[in-house]
Write a structure and sequence with these properties.
Strand order of the largest sheet: 10-9-8-11-12-13-18-22-21
Structural class: alpha/beta
Distance between the termini: 79 Å
Number of strands: 22
Number of helices: 21
Helix content: 40-55%
Low-confidence stretches: none
Largest sheet: 9 strands, mixed
Shape: elongated
Length: 593
């Protein structure tokens, strides 16, 4: 037995009722035209016009996709399509009528206009009838779904309310609140918009979920709103996402994201188009994002270099859609001979150097490896780039290079000194310094998330420790913007916004996870760890055309002397003292607290 699909059943249902409504609309049009008494000699023209109008209306409705629209998706846009489809069918019939008037006559022309109005009314009403019923009935999901309050009387809120009625959110709104005085007391769907303070009442009545439905909020305002919602008793706070069409849990990244206002995609695209780019450390958090944005903004060819097989496999797989434009190279930047062959082979225009050991405690425990990988690796790559005619070299640095207190930070400062002093008119070198990337491997946020998931106490090294944070995609785009404006020899510094107290971060993550009962333990500063990261930007830094990018002062250094010191450093058992010779401001915190 032939079984019809749901789509086929829907098509047959609407087609059947449309035919009935088209016939009824035409018949009623004639009745209205002749005061409910149609003269017999008009019957022939009425029947002929019915078949022509039926064919035209069904055809245009089908062409405009009206038969593919489900009840729950019928909206103003679909109503507009119905109007246009029926208008075009009436217009086409008018043309046919004037060409073949003898075939239809006698036929009253005013019926065409009356029929058009009635057809729009009947066919549109059929489709909106169920939506109207759904809007006024009590949702069947109300007893099953969690109650929630929508924060923000916006178009997002209306979308949320619609989704809740259909049961797609698994949440049931019980009210709408807003902080804007001009909206308080107005109507949002069936709800009276109340002041934000009403959340306390909703919380006391058992509603603990709030969905933020504002279109755009600054990171600062979002954080303030989050704190306010928590103070009113909301323990489950979500943000509605139009792109994903869901109310997702607010994340710590949402609260910390700086959201720079001067991201310039056009400048980055113009800079990268037609270039062959090599990214070292391509599989790391920063390196992989550099690779993605290079391809996004139109680089001609991308060489992805990494010594981690898994990381390189992962980024190669992520960019598989560009397989003809990418080349994964499994290699360490310490492999001088092989690296030289790679640079010779690909005629590279730009090197983005992200390869480095970055984990402070591990570098403290393995100082020779940190120095070899970070300093010698950078020297080898920089020297080979210059030798092989690479036009521009950009090194990714860190805020830990500012008055360093650990081996890792000091090694990166030496890298800055070496690369920037290698710059000349044929070899433009720039270094870009920024703070912590949200969610990067080895950073505090993934660590806290893992501890929360295991129901363990969160470990904070010091109650007053602070750090700067930025989203990786935003930081990387600013790096590429800095590269685009670099002329050679610049030490760029990114504005990382306000510093974040790690203790407050831990408390917020416990709140977001609904696990405020978990403890926060103070473990003491680790070896090489700073209590406060240095301010990245100071009064002496020069402004650029971008408000988030500054140029910091960088002193010249004798490269011959530096090469001798690096060689000495590689052979020394006392790495810290040699680093101190090169970087006098190095104040090694080798014991922690």
């Amino acid at each position: 037995m032939l079984r019809l699909s749901f789509k086929s059943k829907r098509f047959i249902f609407f087609l059947f009722f449309d035919i009935c409504l088209i016939a009824f609309s035409l018949l009623l049009s004639f009745y209205l035209r002749f005061d409910l008494s149609i003269p017999p000699y008009f019957h022939s023209g009425m029947i002929k016009s019915f078949f022509i109008l039926l064919l035209l209306k069904i055809s245009f409705l089908y062409m405009f996709g009206i038969y593919r629209v489900a009840w729950r998706f019928f909206s103003l846009n679909e109503a507009r399509k119905i109007f246009i489809a029926l208008f075009l069918s009436s217009l086409a019939f008018t043309v046919i009528f004037y060409i073949f008037s003898d075939f239809f006559n006698p036929f009253p022309r005013s019926v065409i206009g009356i029929d058009f109005v009635l057809s729009c009314l009947f066919i549109g009403s059929l489709r909106i009838s169920k939506r109207m019923f759904m809007d006024f009935r009590k949702s069947k999901f109300e007893s099953e779904a969690l109650p929630c309050v929508i924060v923000g009387a916006t178009s997002k809120a209306l979308h949320l309310l619609k989704g809740a009625k259909e049961g797609s959110l698994e949440l049931f709104p019980v009210g709408v609140v807003d902080m804007r005085k001009e909206l308080i007391g107005s109507q949002c769907d069936k709800f009276l918009v109340r002041d934000l303070k009403a959340l306390k009442e909703y919380s006391q009545n058992g509603t603990k979920t709030a969905i933020i439905a504002f279109k755009k909020l600054s990171q600062k305002r979002l954080k303030e709103l989050f704190d306010e919602l928590v103070s009113y008793g909301m323990s489950d706070i979500k943000i509605f996402s139009f792109t994903q069409n869901e109310a997702r849990d607010i994340s710590i990244e949402d609260l910390l994201a700086r959201k720079p206002k001067d991201l310039d995609s056009e400048a980055v695209a113009k800079f990268l188009q037609g270039k062959t780019v090599l990214v070292s450390g391509a599989g790391g958090t920063i390196g992989s994002e550099l690779c993605k944005q290079c391809m996004k903004f139109g680089a001609k060819y991308l060489i992805m270099l990494d010594h981690s097989e898994y990381n390189l496999y992962k980024i190669n797989d992520d960019l598989s859609e560009y397989k003809d434009k990418i080349e994964p190279v499994l290699m360490s930047i310490l492999d001088e001979k092989d690296l030289d062959e790679v640079l010779k082979k690909y005629n590279i225009d730009l090197i983005l150097h992200a390869a480095a050991y970055k984990h402070v405690p591990l570098c403290e425990q393995n100082p020779h490896s940190a120095v070899a990988n970070n300093i010698l690796g950078t020297k080898i790559l920089c020297d080979l780039a210059k030798k092989n005619g690479v036009k521009k070299f950009v090194m990714i640095s860190t805020d830990k290079a500012v008055r360093p207190t650990n081996i890792m930070g000091c090694s990166k400062r030496v890298c800055e000194i070496y690369t920037l002093n290698s710059s000349d008119e044929n070899f433009e070198v720039a270094s870009v310094r920024f703070g912590n990337v949200l969610g990067s491997s080895g950073s505090v946020i993934p660590k806290f998330k893992a501890q929360i998931e295991a129901n363990e106490a969160l470990t904070v090294t010091h109650p007053d420790i602070v750090r700067y944070f930025m989203l990786v995609d935003e930081a990387v785009q600013l790096v590429l913007q800095a590269a685009a404006i670099a002329k050679g020899g610049e030490l760029f510094v990114l504005d990382m916004g306000e510093p974040v107290k790690i203790m407050d971060l831990a408390k917020k993550m416990l709140t977001l996870s609904n696990k405020p009962e978990l403890e926060i333990k103070i473990s003491g500063l680790r070896r090489g760890e700073k209590l406060y990261e240095e301010l990245l930007i100071n009064e002496d830094d020069l402004k650029t055309q971008y408000e988030s990018i500054f140029i910091s002062k960088n002193d010249s250094y004798d490269l011959k002397l530096l090469n001798e010191q690096i060689q000495k450093l590689l052979n020394s058992d006392d790495v810290a003292s040699i680093l101190k010779e090169i970087v006098p401001e190095f104040n090694h915190n080798k014991n922690g607290v």
